[in-house]
TrEMBL record:
Cofactor annotation: Mg(2+)
Keyword terms, alphabetized: Hydrolase
Organism: Sphingomonas kaistensis
Record's protein name: NUDIX domain-containing protein
InterPro entries: NUDIX_hydrolase-like_dom_sf, NUDIX_hydrolase_CS, NUDIX_hydrolase_dom
Source organism, top-level taxon: Bacteria
Length: 152
């Protein structure tokens, strides 16, 4: 019960932040990962304040290296404990929640992880690439398409 109340608080806080972003239209930097397990499964997250399964990722500080940022996000969101390789896919512009953003997309191979309880993340799960969940967020579809285009 306490976890549910805390998740609702995070949702309310994010809603308030979106309102501020609507007015200020800040410029942001971000990172997103396509984390693949040694078995080739895709690790996705469900956030407490957004709908659908998503790729792990988030904001990056102005002086933070993109690789350091994505490793931090993976530790925070999926409980990353090990990985084999990180490959940059592309940089792209997007406008999440009224912000103007530039983000870097990475493929992170052979990830090992141990999910832990978080205010932000409700669920972490690995999916076979041929059997992804039907409720993928639109941004997840977009980023997976970008990765396919960047790899062809």
């Amino acid at each position: 019960m306490l976890g549910r109340i805390l998740h609702l608080g995070v949702y309310a806080f994010q809603t308030l932040r979106r309102g501020v972003w609507f007015l200020s239209r800040p410029r942001t930097q971000g990172v997103h990962a396509i984390p693949l397990t040694p078995e080739g499964k895709l690790v996705l997250v469900k956030l407490s304040y957004a709908k659908g399964w998503r790729l792990p990722g988030g904001g990056r500080k102005a002086d933070e290296d993109p690789v350091a940022a994505i490793l931090r996000e993976l530790r925070e969101e999926i409980g990353l404990t090990a990985y084999e390789a990180i490959e940059p896919v592309c940089e792209f512009e997007h406008r999440p929640d009224f912000r103007r953003g530039q983000a870097t997309l990475f493929i992170v191979r052979d990830v090992e992880y141990q999910p832990r309880w978080s205010l932000e993340v409700k669920d972490v799960e690995a999916f076979d690439l041929s059997a992804l969940p039907t409720d993928l967020a639109a941004i997840t579809h977009k980023l997976l398409d970008l990765a396919r285009l960047g790899r062809s």
